[in-house]
């Protein structure tokens, strides 16, 4: 029998299974575990959106939609972005509907980067962008910039250092804000200052704004406002409307750039399910404030979790958005964050995510997702306190 596996794409066999998903599977088999690992809202999709999906099916909207997305959805997206954030995109030529932001990232990287190009990623950040976590980056050099000593924010000085070192090879800057895993949010001035470093250079700015509606302490800021012609903007319905299972993401970019990204989308997906697009259209068009009560509840949970962890000796930058808290493991506990999370879930039935999953700057940290109920947060803190007390004995 021929061993065909060895003839498959080179390098793929060396890609390890995602450690976040691997641990989630492990923790999921432990009874009565408090899970601070989930990266999705624990709320239900608003009823008016669910009804729109049902109506779409009842109306036999079961055929192929236009490849870039239904015009109704693209128009709703354009109106939403203009109304909420002052972002201007032509729905006919500058908006693309994808299978979640995951596909948005894939399409964009495939369409914009060539072997030898450099992609700059401030870390800690969601691992999809990293070279060892993604099969899409082959031939692209990912340069991670550790932000753990700058309050988990990329500075203009750090960005300039990368440009000085790698020169014309730098082709993309990846920005995610509010950020997974830290919950940090940039001010508009901070984004303006970063934009100034790459303005009028042949560098794309991939701006992942999927958590844009979950800003707690300031209006949402965006690099698009200061660098429109170089920004590739991403958003979607997963977080703000608790629609992770609907798998609708959005890419917005100037016409000529979007045209190339859409070519990848056409080859990979063709188009998204029409009823899911109709549901997303309802979200963007008639659910502009649906995230307000959810955001208020997340903020309450953030405060309780933050204060509880600080009392236990964890050091945390207080999150300004999303629903994650990135905490430094106290010095008297196991500092190998991977060993720590497995021991914690085994001994205390509390599941958190290892900070090293988010690359440089993450070692020795753990990520707490507070997309869990308030009673669960309080129980998790109680178990954590007991665990730490037993460690000292």
Task: List its traits.
pyridoxal phosphate; Aspartate Aminotransferase, domain 1; four-stranded antiparallel beta sheet; aminotransferase; Aspartate Aminotransferase, domain 2; seven-stranded mixed beta sheet
General description of the model:
The chain has eleven helices and 13 strands. The protein has 393 residues and is an alpha/beta fold. It folds into two domains: 11-44 and 291-392, Alpha-Beta Complex (Aspartate Aminotransferase, domain 1), CATH 3.90.1150.10; 47-286, Type I PLP-dependent aspartate aminotransferase-like (Major domain) (Aspartate Aminotransferase, domain 2). Strand 5 (170-176), helix 6 and strand 6 form a beta-alpha-beta unit. The radius of gyration is 21 Å and the shape is globular.
Relative strand content = 5-15%
By secondary-structure content and strand pairing, the structural class works out as alpha/beta
Placed side by side, the strands forming the largest sheet appear as 2-8-7-6-5-3-4
Low-confidence stretches: none
Shape assignment: globular
Keywords: Aminotransferase, Pyridoxal phosphate, Transferase
Domain Aminotransferase class I/classII large: 32-384
GO molecular function, one term: transaminase activity
Family: Belongs to the class-I pyridoxal-phosphate-dependent aminotransferase family.
